[in-house]
Amino acid sequence: MADHINIRQAPGTWVVRAAGAVLGESQNALELTEGSYPPVIYFPRGDIAMAFLDQTEKTSHCPHKGDASYFTIEGKSGPLTDAAWSYEDPKDAVAAIKDHLAFYTDRVTVEQL
């Protein structure tokens, strides 16, 4: 793993809410820290209501994690475009985040219960 990336089991129960609705709750979330960036919580897909997320055409590349795919959250008040991302085929060093989603906290609420 890159020296500046750490992945660990996120302690406790985590929830993600968007537009007033709970999209997911997990006791199996992962916390990824990367350098001086704030920690990011990655939720297992099985703990997320994927019916409310649509994969978009947006992608990005991280030299340490690989290629990210993005998802729009369909809410009652309209779409939250590219509000979540996932590494479909992450680099071996961060393979733990495969089949997990992370969310932009300026668009949704991610909090520990």
From TrEMBL:
InterPro entries assigned? DUF427, DUF427_sf
Among Gene3D superfamilies, the record links this protein to: Domain of unknown function (DUF427)
Residues covered by the DUF427 domain: 15-105
Note one Pfam family from the annotation. Answer: NTP_transf_9
Q: Which residues form the signal peptide?
A: none
Name recorded for this polypeptide: DUF427 domain-containing protein
Organism for this UniProt entry: Candidatus Rhodobacter oscarellae
